[in-house]
Amino acid sequence: MKANDAIRIVGPETARMLDLGHPWVVADSYTRKWPVGASGQSVGLCDNQGRFLATALLDPEERIVARVLDRRRIQLDRPWLTEQLRSAIELRLSHADLHDSNACRLVNAEGDGLPGLTVDRYADYLMLQLYSTAWRPHLKLITQVLQDILPTTHGIYEKSRPQKTRELEAVSDSKAYGRLLAGKPAPQRLEVRENGLTFLVTLEQGLNTGLFLDQRLNRRDLMQRVKGKRLLNLFSYTGAFSVAAAAAGAAAVTSVDTSTGYTNWARDNFAANRLNPKQHEFIVGDCLTVLGKLTQSRKNYDIILMDPPSFSTTTKNRFTTRGGTSDLVAASLPLLTDGGLIITSSNHQKVDSTEYLKELRRGALQAGCDLRVISLLGQPEDFPYPVTFPEGRYLKYAVCVKTGGTAKMGTP
Fold it and tell me: At the topology level of CATH, where does 212-403 sit?
């Protein structure tokens, strides 16, 4: 390869963003003039005066055509990768609150200088995900370095990410998107610990493992608020928040999800913690439809929690964070006692905290209630992001107190 083949000239706006520390090069009129390159090739980025800006990983077929690996001239080789991975793991050892937990994120893509690559720990297993095809040529090296750094790891998996996950049906979670890269296979249902509780995850089946690690500290926050309270958990998925609430002494927990499979999984998570699922309520159905029925039945709750996906479609409703959140809040507030808590969460990267709070405001106004934000949390320490990369702060977890408007009195 000639030296000039590994150099890419970026436009003035991209150069400005790189100087400000942003790690992405987005396709534009300048990148369309780049010479043909292979996905996974490391290239040097320069401005049109020839000033070196960064070493980046090429991904020419994507909107993000290159991702910054280092502000220095480097080779993506074993020594460099070892240094990056060791640094990421050391950050968790030094700063992450992992008390009585053995599931966490070890590498958070841009947050650890490895843009487009994540590594999660589930007990004695690791799970890699590639958010850029540029990492695929380096997958074997990544696996080898992780085995060297963490020799007690039982196995390393990759969970593949289909191109159009939003269009996949719920039955896709019965398909095997995970594959073993090294080591021995994990049990079909692997037990992990979080905040002293046991959760069942799968490293092979489905698009997700069954436990969203970025909510660990938010579940701990919930556990401090629920004793003696009645909780309604919407979009309950495999019941992690519900289990946390029941284990912390909630008087009653109602979990709502559209999936029968996830609801059964939630019951299994209750049983894994010696919590009798029969003492709590599980409802399979569309959340907006269920909220209407609960209102008609004059139910009420002390805490309502909702952690919907950024985008979902059921036979009756289509949900998006923009617009859908306000409708959910408005439909939920009549069920919430005055002074009760409504807790809402979103992982939509393109909706920032200010915009998200506007959704809560619209829902409150629609329901004729006031909401006071008493806490606005995000992802835990093992999901770091650079200050130069605002897209990295994606998780919003708002705890609000309801004042004004009266919940319809009835039974929990």
Answer: Rossmann fold (3.40.50)
Per-residue model confidence (pLDDT) at position 324: 85
Domain boundaries, the chain: 3-70, 78-190, 212-403
Opening angle at CA 137, ends 120 and 25, nearest 5:
80
What does the alpha-carbon distance between residue 381 and residue 112 come to, in Å, rounded to a whole number?
12
The tens digit of pLDDT for each residue in 24-42 reads: 999 999 999 999 999 999 9
Contact 238, 266 (CB under 8 A): yes
What tokens were used for 221? 């926050």
Q: What are phi and psi of 368, to 5 degrees?
A: 70, 35
Query: Fold for domain 3-70?
Result: 2.30.130
- Cα distance from N-terminal residue to C-terminal residue, the chain: 70
The edge-to-edge listing of strands for the beta sheet with 52-58 is: 7-9, 42-46, 52-58, 64-70, 24-26
pLDDT number for residue 171: 42
> According to the CATH classification, is domain 78-190 in 3.30.750.80?
yes
For residues 67 and 46, give the distance between their C-alpha atoms in angstroms, rounded to a whole number: 14
